[in-house]
Amino acid sequence: MELEAIEELIESNIEDADATVSRPRTVDENHEDDHYAAVVVSPAFEGKSLVQQHQLVYDALGDHMTTDIHAMELKTYTPEEYESLEE
Question: Which Gene3D superfamilies match (predicted)?
């Protein structure tokens, strides 16, 4: 699955989300390697536990989590949390 397609799914299904998706390791062409990493920033995460935040992302990806994506490393932040990381 293309990185941009994953970003689009997340951003279109989570309110005001900004998603950056990458591959956390080198792709092995001999073995299908559908591991991804995502940093997602959204005000929708406000007041939610980390598990609830990650569930929102998994829900946004829908059936792709069982067909096109083998693993997804997630880092989720509210906009305020993300801004404090950059300081």
Answer: BolA-like
C-beta of residue 73 within 8 angstroms of C-beta of residue 24 = yes
Q: What's the order of all strands across the beta sheet hosting 35-41?
A: 18-22, 35-41, 71-77
Domain containing residue 43: 3-25+35-85
The predicted model scores a pTM of 0.89
CA–CA gap between residue 83 and residue 87 (Å, rounded): 7
30 in any annotated domain: no
Report how far residue 77's alpha carbon sits from residue 39's, in angstroms, rounded to the nearest whole number.
Answer: 8
**Longest distance between any two alpha carbons in the chain, whole Å:** 43
**CATH code at 44?**
3.30.300.90
